[in-house]
Amino acid sequence: MALLKRPNGTEDILPGASSDWQTLEKFLRDTADTFGFSEIRVPTFEQTELFSRGVGETTDVVQKEMYTVSARESTFTLRPEGTAGTIRAILQNGLLNEALPQRVYYILSCFRHERPQAGRLREFHQFGVEMAGSASPAADAEVISLAKQILDQVGVENIELHINSIGCPVCRKKYHEALKAYFAPHREELCETCQERLEKNPMRLLDCKSPICKEIGKDAPEILDYLCEDCSTHFAQLKKNLDLLDISYSVDPRIVRGLDYYTKTVFEFVTTSIGAQGTVCGGGRYDGLIEQLGGPSTPALGFGMGLERLLLVLRNQGVTLGEPKRVDVYFAPMGDAAADKALQLTAMLRREGISAQTDVMGRSLRAQMKYADKIGARFTVVIGDNELAENQAKLKNMQSGEQISVPLDAAFAERFSDIEIADRLAKE
RNA sequence: GUGGGUAUAGCGUAGCUGGUUAACGCGUCAGUUUGUGGCACUGAAGACCGUCGGUUCGAAUCCGACUAUCCACCCCA
């Protein structure tokens, strides 16, 4: 019988790695909490139209990367990102009628049918936040500072914040026209993809890696010169707020973002330490999205942070997140009567919240000790006929080899806690 | 969707000028005389050499296709 394999572009997070995820997730939740964000959980699949309307009919994500599934008479789409579903939930549940701004965060998996490579999977995990109701650049700064604090405190180094403003629909339209006018005379010289971009998304031309396109685009007009007064002051205010928060950034006029809903502020945190997919966090303002999804005209913004990418960065930089949990006590019984006793003691400790194990393999004492060592048991207790007779046994500290007498009854847990505390203090 | 690299036990590798029982390290399991782990030693299990097809008397070794995987483009987190 052939072994079935996991689908292309998916990952198994194994027991040895799950503690990293748990530590990271707890940290993300705690940090979001200090910024006043509460968790929202939304469905994994939504009506396909939510994404085509929200993310944008012409985007690559919607046009060629969505997993659209059918079940009986309905079709749905596995979310390719978290924002659309989150905004949908906010609207459907009337959260905009509560105190504004509404601040939510989520940790979820997203699905995009792309060719997998370093830092790019078909199912990937995202931490994201959305803040709805504020048009102020102070909100932009707050959201950016949340991302910044997470990256700093989790221990990421060498990551840069790039910001840009892509204007509102009014000024962006003028800029697009200016760009098209600039590139049009060079149309034939541009690379194939850029010729397409000229129509579809002219701002992408500025980001092309082809030396020819780069050269042509050298003197192209910049979006920042085309911002209307409102967008322009918004951007200036944001920069001022970032300065006040002591967050360093560089203005990068080439940041475009491939999702249609962005307006005004866009930003990315980028690293070079994990290969070509270096954007660990990306986001921005989307003042038109809520209305686009049928809600009241409401300014909002947010970001998404790629957790696999973040963990890649941390691993490459040698940052360790938490150690795997270890067993506190291993009972090594010899003989049937001892095994019965060990079974009961194990259960008793577990009820007290102490992690305990005993033999389920019928192993010799020697083999049991080897096993206890392998699983990293902190303490072991050998139980044989002598111990049963005296109702006392030796608790062995596996690291120091030190042995202390303990009672083999209900008093064990209490005694163990004392010993464990002493052990911890001794190590500090 | 496009391009390039790789594909041998759970993991990491050797073998690849084609020749008969596919090797090594780590890991796993058992044991090293009867009540104690980390070292060492002994032994065992575990691979139809990614799949299918071709060349050949004979292929893990050569060729092709497919699949998977990695990297890059594209795109994004």
Structure notes:
This protein has 428 residues and is an alpha+beta fold. The protein folds into two domains: 15-168 and 228-316, BirA Bifunctional Protein, domain 2 (2-Layer Sandwich), CATH 3.30.930.10; 329-425, Rossmann fold, CATH 3.40.50. It has 15 helices and 16 strands. The protein has helices at 15-34, 48-54, 60-64, 83-92, 137-154, 169-183, 192-200, 211-216, 229-244, 289-292, 307-316, 336-351, 365-374, 385-390, 411-427; strands spanning 38-39, 45-46, 67-71, 74-78, 102-111, 123-132, 160-165, 250-251, 263-270, 279-285, 300-306, 329-333, 356-358, 379-383, 392-397, 403-407. An eight-stranded mixed β-sheet has the order 1-5-6-11-10-9-7-8, sandwiched between helices. Helix 1 (15-34) runs antiparallel to helix 5. The relative contact order is 0.11. The structure holds one RNA strand of 77 nucleotides.
